[in-house]
Automatic annotation (TrEMBL):
Gene: Dhrs7
Family: Belongs to the short-chain dehydrogenases/reductases (SDR) family.
Protein name as catalogued: DHRS7 reductase
Keyword annotations of the record: Oxidoreductase
Keyword Cell wall biogenesis/degradation assigned: no
Length: 230
């Protein structure tokens, strides 16, 4: 049994809408007023997608980028200003293995995660004068969560009908533990996934031609299952 020494003063919960970028500065200031500092920012807000590009309204792609990408970098901007003043901090962003590879039915989601990868890898190069500010990208594979129940579909008004079985995915607590280990050790990038998804990441990184061939075969079956309602 673990006994926590936390008191009510050690906990502050603020409701935050990543798409309401005008509220992010005030939210940051509220945290600073309460705690006096921000040691770690974990960017973990976002929605996935399950739809074919040819069937999907462009408004869905705009909404994905507004939430997953622009909302994340907006909040990061306000927190980073504080960390630069302190010359210390960690910015942890939950990207995805989809930030490394491409996959069918998730073109918008993949695009948003690729954008986060490119942004934070570039931001890291702008912070070389601040060696104690860490930029950490976490790339999970499939994890047990409610992300499937809340995915974007062909249009903004439609929700998914069948979220499927979650049992084969990594347990949430294991993903969290590995994320914390990665954060504590200042890893620039961590792939947190079981096989076969982890093996596919290595293919995309080191043998992309094979990865493209494999994903075409796997993707064809996945699209067939999607159209069949599986």
């Amino acid at each position: 049994l673990e006994i926590s020494n936390l008191t009510e003063k050690d906990i502050l919960v603020l409701r935050l809408d990543l798409t309401d970028r005008s509220s992010h500065e005030a939210a940051t200031n509220s945290v600073l007023k309460h705690f006096g500092k921000i040691d770690v920012l974990v960017n973990n807000g976002g929605r996935s997608q399950r739809s074919l590009f040819v069937d999907t309204n462009l408004d869905v792609y705009s909404a994905i980028m507004e939430l997953n990408y622009l909302g994340t970098i907006s909040l990061t901007k306000h927190v980073l200003n504080h960390m630069i003043q302190r010359k210390k901090g960690k910015i942890v962003t939950v990207s995805s293995v989809m930030g490394i590879m491409g996959a069918p039915l998730a073109s918008g989601y993949c695009a948003s995660k690729h954008a986060l990868q490119g942004f934070f890898n570039s931001l890291r190069t702008e912070l070389t004068d601040y060696p104690e500010i860490s930029i950490i990208n976490i790339c999970p594979g499939p994890v047990q969560s409610k992300i499937i129940q809340n995915v974007f579909t062909e249009n903004l008004a439609k929700s998914i009908e069948n979220s499927g079985d979650q049992s084969h995915k990594m347990p949430t607590d294991r993903c969290v533990r590995l994320t914390l280990v990665s954060t504590a050790n200042d890893l620039k990038e961590a792939w947190i996934s079981d096989h076969p998804y982890l093996a596919v990441c290595y293919l995309w990184q080191y043998a992309p031609t094979w990865a493209w061939w494999l994903m075409n075969r796997m993707g064809k079956r996945r699209i067939q299952n999607f159209k069949s309602g599986v």
